[in-house]
Amino acid sequence: MPRRKTYTGFNNPFLLWTELAMKTGEMMLASASVIDHRTRRMSAAGAQPSARDRREFGVMRDEKIKATNQASQAMTAQFLRTDPLLWVRAYQQMVAVTTAMMSLAASRTINQLFERQARLMRTLSGSITPMFAFSAATARLAQRGLTPIHSRATANARRLGK
Question: What is the per-residue pLDDT across 12-33, written as a single tens digit (0 to 9) for each?
Fold first, then answer.
């Protein structure tokens, strides 16, 4: 079955996180079948695995190391492509919202309460865009890390399922 390219909203965190969840689920299903196949193979091989089994076990070890290295490199590259000020703005917004919430909780009069509630609402509405961008950047970072692991797991499931 030919693979089709999936298109997500470039800055829509909901779509990015949904795609990540779908790929994670697909990887987990593939991993379960690969683990089942390899566990049975190791059990059947016993203490004296054949040359074919030893090759497969060596491939298993090498591919895990390679996939981990590729995931780390992909995530580092994605992190470096991300606007460095995005992380700063997201942190500043979290602090501003927390400060406004604490100020609201410490209100002593009804006038203070209404004034601080309005300030909290302004702070929250100002935090939407930075948090939206932060969530999208985090989802893209996670997707980059998952891609090499996902591709190995699904390829192994296809190969070993024959």
Answer: 888 999 999 999 999 999 999 9
Cβ atoms of 97 and 127 within 8 Å: the answer is yes
In whole angstroms, give the CA distance from residue 8 to residue 14: 9
Let me know: does 56 contact 41? Beta carbons within 8 Å. Answer: yes
Structural Rg of the chain based on CA atoms:
24
CB 142 within 8 A of CB 16: no
SS3 track for 71-140: HHHHHHHHHHHCCHHHHHHHHHHHHHHHHHHHHHHCCCCHHHHHHHHHHHHHHHHHHHHHHHHHHHHHHH
Give me 82's structure tokens.
Answer: 């991300």
